[in-house]
Design a protein that fits this description.
The chain has 20 helices and five strands. By secondary structure, the chain is mainly α. It folds into four domains: 72 residues, no CATH class; 92 residues, Orthogonal Bundle (Arc Repressor Mutant, subunit A); 83 residues; 99 residues, Arc Repressor Mutant, subunit A (Orthogonal Bundle). A three-stranded antiparallel sheet has the order 3-5-4. A two-stranded antiparallel sheet has the order 1-2. A hairpin with a 2-residue loop joins β4 and β5. α2 crosses α3, α11 packs parallel to α20 and α16 crosses α19. The longest helix is centred in the C-terminal third of the chain and has 20 residues. The relative contact order is 0.11.
C-alpha cells in the first residue's frame, strides 16, 4: 500500500520530465525542493507532491535537517505516512544523514536586492526573465531560491511609493536589469525604500526578483490599477503573497497560524513564528526580523490596502483570526486555478488542491470546501472550466486556450475572458 491512492495520471508526464532533468544535471532539478519532490514521487505515486515538498522544507529548514528528523516528528506532518518516512530515513542512512552540503543560507543578504547594473545593459536575461516568456516552466514555488525571512525589510506597504516604482520601471521597457542608483534617482526614493518596495513587489508578483523588471501581471496592474485599489488586484496579490512558501513568514501565518491554530494577538504571532523557526536562524535575526514582518502584515491587512479584503477579524481581547472570505471574484478565482494548473503542468486539478493544500485559494482565504465548491461550480456554469467527478473524486479540468493573465485582464476591462489571446498579449501568458 502506498501513501496515497489518489488517481492523477495527468502528472505522469511531469514526473518523467523531473527524472529526465535530474539525470541530465539540470540546475533547477538539483535544488533541494526539486530533489525532495522527486524523492517523494517514489513513495506517493498518484498525487502531486510538490506542495508537500515545499511544506516540509519550510517546516524543517533544509533537506539535511529533514533527513535528520526523528520519525515520530515526521509522522506529525499531514501527508507523510509510513512509506515516505521509511524512504526518507533510508536516504538519510545511505548519505550519513547530515553530510549533504547545505544549499540554504538563511543569514545571507536578501536575494531581491537591486544589482548595480546600468540601465540598457546588453546582459542576457536571467533565468527569472526567461521564465516570463517560456510556457510550462517552473513557477516561484519551484524556484531554487531559499525562503526569505525578510520581505518588508522593516518598511510598510505604501501604495503611493509603490506606484512611483512601478511607473518608473514601466517607462523603461528597454532595461533588462535595473540599477539601484538609477531607480533612486528616477523615483526620488531612498535606497531602503527602493529595496523594500522591490522585495514586496516580488512577493506579490509585480516585479521579477533581482532584475526588477515588471512581470506580465505587474504590467497589467501598472496599466489598470497603479495604486493597488482594485479588489481584483488585492485578491490576486494576496494569493501570490500568502500562497508562496518563499515568503516565509507570510506563508506560515496564513497557511498554518491563521488556518489551524487558535486566534492570538500580535505578540502571539511573533512568539509562534519564533517557536516554529527555532534553531534555523540566529536569535538576533529572529527577534528583529520576525517582529518587522509581523508588523508589516498586520499593517498591510488592517490599515493599508489589503484591509479592503477584511480578511482579519479582531476580537475585543485583541486576538486576530482569519475571516472566511466569500466575496472572491469569479475571474480572480479562475486565474488562480489556471495558475495552479500551470505550476503543476497539468490540465486536471484535484479539488482538494484548491482548498486543503498550503498556498491554495481555500487555505489563504479561509474558505470551507462547501463555499469553494459553489464558487467553482459557478465557473463551470460559465464555461471557464469543467468541474467533474472522476473515480469518485472531484476534479477541475482546465479548458484549452484560457490563460491566467487573460482572466485578470478581462476582470479589469469588465468583459468576458477569451480563449484566444490578442496578439500583443500572446507572448506574456504566464504571470511570473
Amino acid at each position: 500500500m502506498t501513501d496515497d491512492s489518489t488517481d492523477s495520471t495527468s502528472s505522469a508526464g511531469h514526473r518523467e520530465r523531473m527524472r529526465s532533468r535530474f539525470l541530465a544535471g539540470d540546475e533547477v532539478a538539483l535544488s533541494e525542493e526539486a530533489i525532495l519532490e522527486l524523492l517523494l514521487t517514489y513513495s506517493i505515486p498518484r498525487r502531486d507532491v510538490r506542495p508537500l515538498a515545499e511544506a516540509l522544507l519550510v517546516r524543517f529548514g533544509s533537506l539535511s535537517k529533514l533527513l535528520e528528523t526523528d520519525p515520530v516528528e515526521l509522522a506529525k506532518v499531514s501527508g507523510i505516512k509510513e512509506n515516505s518516512i521509511a524512504l526518507l530515513k533510508l536516504v538519510a542512512q545511505l548519505t550519513g544523514e547530515g553530510r549533504r552540503p547545505e544549499t540554504r543560507t538563511p543569514e545571507s543578504p536578501s536575494c531581491d536586492n537591486l544589482p548595480e547594473q546600468v540601465p540598457g545593459s546588453s546582459e542576457k536575461s536571467s533565468s527569472s526573465d526567461a521564465a516570463i516568456r517560456t510556457k510550462n516552466v517552473s513557477k516561484p514555488a519551484k524556484s531554487p531560491d531559499p525562503p526569505k525571512l525578510q520581505v518588508s525589510n522593516g518598511y510598510s506597504l505604501d501604495a503611493a511609493q509603490n506606484a512611483r516604482l512601478l511607473s518608473y520601471i514601466s517607462e523603461h521597457p528597454e532595461v533588462r536589469r535595473f540599477a539601484r542608483r538609477d531607480v533612486m534617482e528616477g523615483t526620488g526614493l531612498s535606497e531602503g525604500q527602493v529595496e523594500s518596495l522591490a522585495s514586496i513587489g516580488a512577493a506579490i508578483g509585480l516585479v521579477v526578483p533581482r532584475t526588477q523588471v515588471l512581470t506580465p501581471f505587474g504590467k497589467l496592474v501598472t496599466k489598470h490599477d497603479l495604486f493597488l485599489d482594485s479588489i481584483i488586484t488585492l485578491e490576486f496579490c494576496h494569493f501570490l503573497g500568502a500562497g508562496n512558501p518563499r515568503n516565509l513568514i507570510w506563508f506560515m501565518i496564513f497557511n498554518d497560524l491563521l488556518a489551524i491554530e487558535k486566534p492570538t494577538d500580535q505578540a502571539g504571532w511573533s512568539a509562534w513564528v519564533r517557536e516554529k523557526l527555532a534553531g534555523q536562524y540566529s536569535e538576533g535575526s529572529m527577534v528583529k526580523h520576525i517582529a518587522h514582518e509581523v508588523r508589516f502584515l498586520l499593517d498591510a491587512y488592517t490599515v493599508k490596502n489589503f484591509n479592503k479584503l477584511s480578511l482579519l477579524i479582531e476580537t475585543p481581547d485583541k486576538t486576530l483570526g482569519l475571516r472566511r472570505y466569500t466575496a472572491l471574484q469569479p475571474l480572480s478565482l479562475a486565474a488562480m486555478i489556471y495558475l495552479i494548473g500551470e505550476r503543476h503542468q497539468a490540465g486536471l486539478v484535484p479539488f482538494t488542491d484548491l482548498h486543503a493544500e498550503p498556498g491554495s485559494p481555500g487555505r489563504v482565504f479561509g474558505l470551507d470546501p462547501s463555499s469553494l465548491r459553489q464558487m467553482v461550480e459557478l465557473l463551470h456554469q460559465r464555461g471557464w472550466l469543467r468541474f467533474e467527478v472522476r473515480h469518485g473524486l472531484d476534479q477541475v479540468r482546465l479548458v484549452d486556450g484560457f490563460e491566467p493573465l487573460e482572466f485578470l485582464a478581462a476582470a479589469y476591462e469588465q468583459r468576458s475572458p477569451e480563449t484566444t489571446p490578442s496578439p500583443d498579449s500572446e507572448p506574456e501568458r504566464l504571470l511570473l
